[in-house]
Amino acid sequence: MAGASPKQNGKIELKRELGLFSAVNMILAVMIGSGIFISPASALYHSGSVGMCIIVWAVCGLISLLGALAFAELGTVVPRSGAEYAYFMDAFGPLHKFWGNLPAFTASWIYVVILRPAEVAVIVMTFAEYFCQPILDALCIKDEEYSGYLKKVVALLAMASITYINMSSVKLYVKLQNIFGACKVIACLIVIGGGIYELSIGNVGNLQKGFEGTNYHPANLALAFYSGLWAYDGWSTITTVTEEVKRPEVNIPRSIAISVPLVTLLYVFMNIAYMTVLPIPEMIQAQAVAVAFGERVLGAAGFLIPVGVALSTFGCALSVQFGVTRLCYVASQDGNMLKSMSFVHVKRLTPAPAVVTQGIITFIFIVIGNIMQLIEMASYLMWIFYGTAMVALLMLRKTMADVPRPYRVPTIIPIFIIIVAVFLSVVPLVTDPSFKYVVSILFILIGMVIYWWFIYLNKRPKFMDGFTRYIQILFQAVPPAVHVE
Question: N or C terminus of the chain: which is more exposed, having fewer CB within 10 Å?
Fold first, then answer.
C-alpha cells in the first residue's frame, strides 16, 4: 500500500501522492519559469527573423518531447526516483567497481551541490524582483540600495517558505503546485489572448516580414536552438520523483505527452503574440518582454503580467527544489551522498534533511547574489547528462531485456537525442570558449576526488556517526522502510 500512512502499514516511506493532473502540473511548473515572460529574445536574436524564430521554438518543443518520451521509458524500466542518477546506476554501475558508479555520482554532485540550488536562487530572486517592484513604485521608493536590500530579504523569506512547504507535506506541495500551475497557464493565455486581439485588428506588420533577415550561419542557428532548448528544460523533472507518482508506468508517459506539447503551443503562440506588437529590435533589447507587451496591449490590466511572473517563478522554484531533494534522497540511499539525506520524517513522510540541505545551499547562493555565470558554467553539462541517459536506455535494453516495458520508444529517438546532446555540448565550447568551462571541469575533478576518497575507499570521518544521529534527532527522521509501531 504505497499511499498508506505509517499507522496503517507500520512502515516509514515516501507516499505516492502525485496523480496525473499533479504530474502534468509539476512538469508545467518547471518548464514554464520566468524565461518566456522576461527574456525569450535570444532565439530571435540568433535566428534573425520572425519566421525562423517560430520554427526554432516549434522544433525545440519537438526535441524536448522526444527526449521526455525516452525518459518515460527509462522511468518504467528503473522505477526509482532520481532520473539520470538512477538510470546511470543501473546501466553503468555493474560494469566496473570504480568507473561504473562515477557517472551517477557526477550527475548527483553537479545537480545537488551547484546547478539546481543556483537555479532555484535565480528563480527566487526573480520572484522577489516582480513581487517588490510594484510595491516600491506605489510607495515612490527609488533608493536602489534600499530596494536591493528589500528584494534580497523577500527572496530569503520566499526560499524559507518553499523549504517549509516541501518539508511539511507532499500533499501540501501538490495542492499549492496545482494552484500555481493553473495560474501560470492563465498568465500565458492572457498574453496569447492579447496577441489574438492585435491580430484581429490587423496588426500583422511585424509578422509579415517572415524570414526576412534570417541568419543561416550554422553557429547562429545552433545558438538559437541552444537558447530555445534551455527555455524548454524541465521536461525530465517528473522522473526525479517516480516513487511518488501514482501508477508511474501509466501516468509518467501520459503526463509528458500532455504537458510538453502544451508548453510548446504556449511558447510558440506567446512568441507570435509578442511579435504582433513589439518590433524585433525592441523585443531583443527589452529587459522584460511580457511586461513591455502588457504595457502596450493590456493597459490598466498590465499589472497581471508582473503578478503572473511572480506566481510562475514561485511555483517553478517550489517544484525544482522538490525534484532535486528526491535526487539527493535516492543518491544517499546508495551511499553517494550523506547517509542522513536519505532519512524520512516519521510523521510527515518527507525527506526533511535533504529538503533543508537544499534550502541552506540555495540561501547561500541568494546571499552571494551574482551567480548567473555559475549556472552558465554548469548548465551545458545537462545535455551531456541527457545524452548519457540515452546511452543508458540503449544499454538497459540489452542488460535488462526481460524487464516489462509497458512503454517503449522507437530506437531512432534515443539515437537522435544523443546526436543533439553531442551537438549542444560542443557548441558552447566552440562558439564561446571561456574560463567558465575550465572551472566546470575542475569542479567535476573535485567531485571525482571526493568520490574516490569518501565513497570508493570509504574513508569516513569518525565524527560522521555522531552527526548522523544528531540529524536524525533534529529532524525526527529515520531511514526509509523502517517499521514503527
Answer: C
